[in-house]
Every structure is written in C-alpha cells, then in structure tokens.
C-alpha cells in the first residue's frame, strides 16, 4: 500500500519501507531574518532559499513524524495566532521592549491615534506576471508562486493558480503570510495554509524586467522582509536584501516628509523598488541611511516627537497593541 513519508524535506509516496529516505531530522529555525534547519548549517534570508536547502540525513521513510517539537512559547502567543504580529526589533543598545497592556485599555488608547482603516484593495506591488504564452515551459517545472505547488508535467499553463501574493512572516512563534490574516504556531500547519488568491494562469517561468540600458535581464522583486523599532523621536527601519549595489542604489527621503523612495539594485541581477509612505510625517533633512551586506538600514526622524507609531506605513493594519517608547537617540 502506497503511503506518504512525513519526514521534512522528503514527502515522497513510497511502497517499500526499506527504501532510502533523505530528510531533515531537526525542526526549522527562524531568527533575526535567518532561516534554516537545526540539524544542518545553511542559513538564508529568503523563504524560497530556505525551502531549497537540500536534506542532510539519510534513513528510512516513515509515516510517523519523529521531528523534535518546537520549544514551547509563552501563553500570550495563542493570542498572536489570530492577530497580525508586531514587527520584531533589530538588535541595538536602544532596543525597546513591546508591552501588552489590558486589551480594552489598549484599543481605546490607540483609537485616538490610529488612522481610519481603508477598504481592503489588492496591493499592486504583490502581483506577479504570468508566463509569456509564446515561451515553452521545460518539463517537470513547478509554479513559482508561493504555496501553489502545481507541476507543468500534470497541469496546463492556463488553469487556475491558487497562491499567496505576500511574503512569509514569523514572529515570536506566530507564523503566517502578509497577504492574509491566518496565523498558526506550528511550522507544519503554516506549510498547509491554503493560498488566499486565485487567478487564471500559472507562473512556471516568471517574468523579468530589463535594465535601463537594455544590456541584460534583471529580476524585479515584489517584496522583501522589513522591520522597525522606535524611540521617542526616531524609527530605525531595515529592509533585508543581500548584495545591494551601493553605487547604483537610490534612497530618497521625500522633501514633503511623506516617506522614502527606494530603488535598490543588487550585484546579482535583482532590483527592489518601493515608495514607503510613512504613518506620520518625517524630518527628511535629519534622516540617515546605511547600506550593509545584507540590508538597508535607515534612521527616520519623526516630525512629531514622543508619539508612538503602531505601524510603519499608511494603510497598514494595526494590532491593537501599544508599543512602548524609549529615549531618543543622541546625535
């Protein structure tokens, strides 16, 4: 009788219990943007690279999952499973500690500062182009959209594709996607979250944009991981992208204080563009940027000091939680 192996990294259907199985015996680990498996060393920043890490252990197939359970979390994480998680601070001597007060008092206190929620509309930045219908698809190619998983060997290109247009988000044990509300605590349950968007046509090849000089192709990134923490007068914001080309990168703090314009090409043929409209106004002449090996880090100065921001950008969903404010950074 055919059975499906439950080992992580395998997932094959087998009939011979003595058949060799290659898998990950350890649980997944996610920390400060790094993603990998506890049983082996590779660590990556993107979720797609994490999924492509080759299994590290050979054994036999199994229908019983013997992977060590993830460490137990605090009781408050059961509440986070139903809500959009807060953004995680990056390390700093001025890092502040999020405080979760009484829920009724929190909701009331935020009602005076949180902007009215806009009607839910699709974010055009999360859209992915379908394949060029004139370009042949190589055999045994998997759809590139997240959580689709359809293979060109048994699926026509023009059939319906159900996927997640957003990016994975992991915070304090809560796991989910930026494009939908469902949150779970276990990694296996996260992998089973069904796509939240359906469109006709799969993306087996993907579509790449052209560089301005037309000399070579360049991959346009739809989104990258970002986070922030704040003090009384500043926000320290990070956009995680490896190999940013410092010579060609453009980070413009808009003169009207409405946000930041990003154009971040990389040395390995990728590019990320985004206009970040901040929740409240900034003081652009004081803002600073620093391009590091794995990220862009910015220090944004608030025009209205001493006010805690529940979110970074306009229109972003608030969580009903207060973020405690620390002391301002010194020049």
From TrEMBL:
Please provide the record's keywords in A-Z order.
Metal-binding, Repeat, Zinc
What is this protein's name? Uncharacterized protein
Answer yes or no on keyword RNA-binding: no
One GO MF term attached to the UniProt entry = metal ion binding
Residues of the region (Disordered) are: 57-161
Q: Which top-level group of life is the source organism from? A: Eukaryota
CS domain location is 221-313
Q: Source species, please?
A: Lithohypha guttulata
In Pfam terms, one family for this protein is: CHORD
CHORD domain: residues covered: 5-61, 143-202
The record, for InterPro entries, names: CHORD_dom, CHRD1, CS_dom, HSP20-like_chaperone
Keyword Repeat applies: yes
Cross-referenced PROSITE patterns: CHORD, CS
Extent of Polar residues compositional bias = 103-114
């Amino acid at each position: 009788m055919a059975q499906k192996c439950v080992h992580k990294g395998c997932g094959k259907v087998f009939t011979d219990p003595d058949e060799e199985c290659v898998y990950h015996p350890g649980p997944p680990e996610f920390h400060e943007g790094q993603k990998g498996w506890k049983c082996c060393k590779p660590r990556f920043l993107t979720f797609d690279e994490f999924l492509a890490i080759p299994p590290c252990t050979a054994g036999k197939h199994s229908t019983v999952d013997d992977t060590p359970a993830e460490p137990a979390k605090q009781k408050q994480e059961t509440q986070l499973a139903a809500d959009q998680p807060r953004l995680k601070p990056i390390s700093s001597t001025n890092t502040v500690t999020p405080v979760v007060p009484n829920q009724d008092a929190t909701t009331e206190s935020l009602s005076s500062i949180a902007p009215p929620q806009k009607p839910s509309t699709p974010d055009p930045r999360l859209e992915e182009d379908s394949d060029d219908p004139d370009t042949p698809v190589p055999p045994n190619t998997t759809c590139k959209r997240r959580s689709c998983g359809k293979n060109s060997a048994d699926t026509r290109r023009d059939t319906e594709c159900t996927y997640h247009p957003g990016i994975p988000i992991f915070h304090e044990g809560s796991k989910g996607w930026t494009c939908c509300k469902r949150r779970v605590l276990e990694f296996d349950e996260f992998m089973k979250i069904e796509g939240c968007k359906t469109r006709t046509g799969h993306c087996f090849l993907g579509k790449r944009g052209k560089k301005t000089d037309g000399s070579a192709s360049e991959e346009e990134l739809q989104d990258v991981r970002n986070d922030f923490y704040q003090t009384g007068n500043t926000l320290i914001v990070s956009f995680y992208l490896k190999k940013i080309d410092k010579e060609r990168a453009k980070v413009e703090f808009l003169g009207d204080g409405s946000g930041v314009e990003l154009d971040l090409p990389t040395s390995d043929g990728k590019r990320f563009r985004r206009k970040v409209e901040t929740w409240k106004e900034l003081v652009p002449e004081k803002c600073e940027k620093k391009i590091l090996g794995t990220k862009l880090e910015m220090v944004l100065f608030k025009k209205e000091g001493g006010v805690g921001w529940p979110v970074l950008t306009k229109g972003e969903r608030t969580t009903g939680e207060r973020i405690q404010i620390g002391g301002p950074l010194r020049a």
